[in-house]
Amino acid sequence: MRDFRGGRFRRWYLRPDDTTVFFDPQRAPISAFFHFLTGLMLSGYVRWGNQKPALARTSNLNEELGQVGYIMSDKTGTLTCNLMEFVKCSIAGVAYGHGMTEVERALTRIKGDGPLEAVDTLSNLPPYHGDTRRSGNSIKGFNFRDECIMNGQWVNEPHSAVIQLFFQTLAVCNTAVPERNKQTGEITYEAESPDELAFVISAREIGFELFERTQSSVSLHELDPETGKKVTRVYQILEILEFSSHRKMMSVIVRTMENQILLLCKGADSEILERLSDEGRLFEAKTKEHVRTYAEAGLRVMLIAYRELGEAIEDKLQKGVSECIDKLAQATIKIWVLTGDKMETAVNIGLLRRGMELITITLDFPEIKALERQGDKEAIFKASLESVKEQLRDGKKQVDSVKECPIEYGLVIDGKSLAFALDKELKKKFLELALACASVLCCRSTPKQKALVTRLVKTDCSKTTLAIGDGGNDVSMLQEADIGVGINGVEGMQLHNIISLMPSFFS
After folding, report:
1. From its phi and psi, is residue 7 left (phi > 0), alpha (psi between -120 and 50) or beta?
2. DSSP string computed for 225-267
3. Which residues form a coiled coil (predicted)?
4. Given 74, 326, 364, 400, the catalytic residue
């Protein structure tokens, strides 16, 4: 209301039709100038239909817009809403999911091929009117309807095992974090992208609910096709290969409860199809046909694939590492390995010599997992702290009981346990046990934990500490040590500015 006084606008340029100077033929130059000035001023008042102001960053925006000849536009999130919904799928050459997309409806109108509720070209379902969501509750990210799949009916399909693996992959091949509402018990997800969120929600609605994620595993509630009952299945995460614009796909390597090692992938059809094995091409023609039809319907398409691995990938030791470690041990120099690798992988690197007894500290116990499922953080903390405390005490007793015998001990501790071992209440006990062992191996440790362990040894021992690493996640550890050595290896030159020495190999 500041611009309105006595029935008139205070600022003349808001009412150019009521200002004579704009239409004075005797003063054409000044009229043109005021027209130009008014255009610049009004450009700051441009608004879109949703009443949100469009911010003009330059004063000559209107002139530039008037000269546009070509427009280059992104699609996802620009022309589309970037609100992903699971609508249809093709599994083992069979198309599932019914309903028409907005693009299909528009094409039907243009072609005049018949009523909008015409039968879906890829399914045998009867005509369906309205939204494809379940009646009653609309679920964000899930817009799928097919009686052959829903309500556990997928177990009666000819390729039920493939359907099961398809939705297991949707539930497992992601980095989504489930969060349970304590009042309602409802599970929601924090995901990195809208399509990842849509996939994990859809898997839940079909009956494969991701309900827990830890540092090394994911747990699902899913239907057992043999018993027809809901069961809990845990998938051990061996490796996550995150999506990148170069790979155009994401993969995870998991170990199932049957001890199978599976590579699960989701990604662009151009990347997945060219990697199919001969056995995997059984449904290739039908799948390509469905992919083309889905794309024509305006759907964003992603392919799902898997491979059973006979063996894990080996991260080979550099030449001479084992011999180098042995010579350092003979010189009474103790080596502690601080790694992000899994415990099983890290144990077999040559640090733990033959005949060495292992003391393993872990929180991988049923009692702790049960508390984690309940979500009581205070109870988890207390139980975990007490468990690590007891294991440290038992380990020290074990070492002290054989002081007169020539037995070497190796201490192995995982990242979750290490977080409690470095607590102010336990770090002295941890250090006492670690110093009493010939070798120490900290697995699944974070960059911060690496630095804290290095600081603990440096401040509480009278010996000089040397840290050695090859990547950016080793920076904090190298800075904490008295001497930092950076390996000039595959991960490049991230350490160049903070190290004392940069050799090409460990040995």
Report:
1. left
2. TTT-SEEEEEEEEEEEE---TTT-EEEEEEE-TT--EEEEEEE
3. none
4. 74
d(C-alpha 149, C-alpha 91), whole Å? 11
- Read out DSSP for 433-499? HHHHSSEEEE-S--HHHHHHHHHHHHHHSSS--EEEESSGGGHHHHHHSSEEEE--STT-STTTTT-
Distance of CA 145 to the CA centre of its chain: 27
Tokens of 265: 């992938």
**Average pLDDT in the 53-61 region?**
60
Q: Is 131 among the residues known to form the active site?
A: no
Kindly tell me the burial class for residue 196, based on how many C-beta atoms sit within 10 Å of its own C-beta (0-12, 13-18, 19 or more).
buried
The residues of the chain that CATH labels 3.40.50 are 321-445
Nearest to 392 by CA among 365, 372, 371, 363: 363
Whether the CB-CB separation of 233 and 222 falls below 8 Å is answered with: yes
Closest CA to 439 of 506, 374, 352: 352
CA distance 129 to 280: 36
Q: Give the domain 321-445 fold.
A: Rossmann fold (3.40.50)
d(CA 141, CA 245): 23
| pTM for the predicted model, two decimal places | 0.54
Residue 258 and residue 198: Cα distance in Å, rounded? Answer: 28
What CATH number matches the domain at 89-309, 3.30.70, 3.40.1110, 3.30.365, 2.120.10?
Answer: 3.40.1110
List every span in the chain annotated with CATH 3.40.1110: 89-309
Query: CA-CA distance, 91 to 304, in Å (whole number)?
Result: 9
Phi (first) and psi of residue 135, to 5 degrees: -65, 140
Q: What is the pLDDT of residues 395-434, one digit of tens each?
A: 999 998 877 667 788 899 988 999 999 999 899 999 999 9
